[in-house]
Amino acid sequence: MPKEPPPVVDRYFEHDANRDIDAIVALLTDDATVIDEGVTRRGIPDIRDWQSGAVSKYQYTATVTGGEPTGPDSYRALARLDGNFPGNTVALKFDFTIRGEQITRLKIAP
């Protein structure tokens, strides 16, 4: 398996850096699931609310520090977030499940 991230993973981080919520949501399947801060969001409306609410309450930059395939349709990206949230810096794992050129599941956790 290649160590390079799938293009959709690169696009996710590019759109996140620009805070382009419409572009982020366009990367997801209609039935996508996102798990962040222990909360599960299902479907585009719920995920859009997460992007415009919980994710947008802080300013941050994400620096991808590594990554590896975790299966034929999955990839784990490691990233450091620096921003104005409590603690100012956190290392997170972004576990992507991919179907074709879209994300079906994303779990973000320490």
Task: Detail the topology: elements first, then pairings.
Blueprint: H1 7-17, H2 21-26, E1 28-36, E2 39-42, H3 43-52, E3 60-71, E4 74-83, E5 89-99, E6 102-109
Parallel strand pairs: 1-6
Antiparallel strand pairs: 1-2, 3-4, 4-5, 5-6
Describe this structure in words.
The chain has helices at residues 7-17, 21-26, 43-52; strands at 28-36, 39-42, 60-71, 74-83, 89-99, 102-109. It is of the alpha+beta class. Strands 2-1-6-5-4-3 form a six-stranded mixed beta sheet. Strand 4 (74-83) and strand 5 (89-99) form a beta hairpin. The radius of gyration is 13 Å and the shape is globular.
Fraction of residues in helix: 10-25%
Mean pLDDT: 94
> How many beta-strand runs?
6
Topology pattern, helix = H, strand = E: HHEEHEEEE
Strand order in the sheet with the most strands? 2-1-6-5-4-3
N/C terminus separation: 24 Å
The best one-word shape is globular
Q: Nearest-angstrom radius of gyration?
A: 13 Å
- Uncertain segments are none
Largest sheet at a glance? 6 strands, mixed
How many H/I helical runs? Answer: 3
Indicate the proportion of strand residues: over 45%
Class of secondary structure makeup: alpha+beta
